Amino acid sequence: MASFLLPDRCALSPMAEAVAARTLPPLRRAHSYGFQPPVAIPCRPLGLAAARSIASHSSTLSAVAPETTAKVIDGKLVSNQIKDEVTAEIARMKNAIGIVPGLAVILVGSRKDSQTYVRNKKKACEVVGINSYEVNLPEDITEEEVVKHIASFNDDSAVHGILVQLPLPRHMKEENILNAVNIGKDVDGFHPLNIGCLAMQGRDPLFVPCTPKGCMELLHRYDIEIKGKRAVVIGRSNIVGMPVALLLQKENATVSMVHSYTKNPEEVTSQADIVISAAGVANLVRGSWIKPGAVVIDVGINPVDDAETPRGYRLVGDVCYEEACKVASAITPVPGGVGPMTIAMLLSNTLGSAKRIHNFN
């Protein structure tokens, strides 16, 4: 995936680090909606002239508006709360009917990042009491062989959720693989019938994709009003941007989408009460893009060079945190915001699937 950096790369200042340490407790329990890394098309990189214009706008804004610090929406805190809730429900289900939810993960190839994601999901399953099943397949395996493994999990009564780790090797058609997953076990929410129901009024999917569901859960738990608000989603991927826009519309927000062909993206974004960015471009969204008092959910996880860190890089979001936290009313940090929510939602979806299959309320 392409990556672009602005000429004046935004860095977290000590002030921003201090802000990130201050969090509010979540205010609501789980919403009724039943990790993949975010994959989004890269937005148009900004040139030097545009960056200078933004810097000028930011200076003007700071001259007329008082310094403010946003409330930090703590994804780690909320995800731990959700895991506790899932753990309690799994224990209740096991005691009542003797069923333990099972999640199967299929990993094709040897990508280090995918291996890390699968390992983290397996650990999370162990923490909450979900049985995990894992199949590691070679890079050069055929589509037909992968589909056979999916079919075996489709038929396995101990498996209630099936996840195919993305991305897949280039010789495979992603839609063929995802379509093979039983819609009743599609805990990733990527089956076209699940997405189709998400898009239709009066219909509800069996599963909502995990990262978009996590974004909405953060808004709900921090009691952030959605109905009647203007929302902008940056990025239109099938995994994050498109489904989260549909979720916002289901909750009666007025939604605009910003993508690589959007003219004046900063102008469109600056009108939003809620901004959800899933573009995959480090520090794309500057403070001048944010409407004062807006809520910002940053899905981006982008590595940028940093010689001062042991790894030689650090992770930043799509939003320049140091600038946005002075303008927004609430914001997710990166890391520690949306990321932990994705796995928490996967666990929640798997539990929901087991409940549905065994008719357990």
UniProtKB/TrEMBL annotation:
PROSITE patterns in alphabetical order: THF_DHG_CYH_2 (PS00767)
Pathway(s) it belongs to: One-carbon metabolism; tetrahydrofolate interconversion
Any single biological process term in GO: photorespiration
Residue ranges occupied by any Tetrahydrofolate dehydrogenase/cyclohydrolase catalytic domain in the UniProt entry: 73-188
Complexes and interactors: Homodimer.
NCBIfam families per the UniProt record, alphabetical: PRK14186.1
Family of this protein: Belongs to the tetrahydrofolate dehydrogenase/cyclohydrolase family.
Designated name of the protein: Bifunctional protein FolD 4, chloroplastic-like
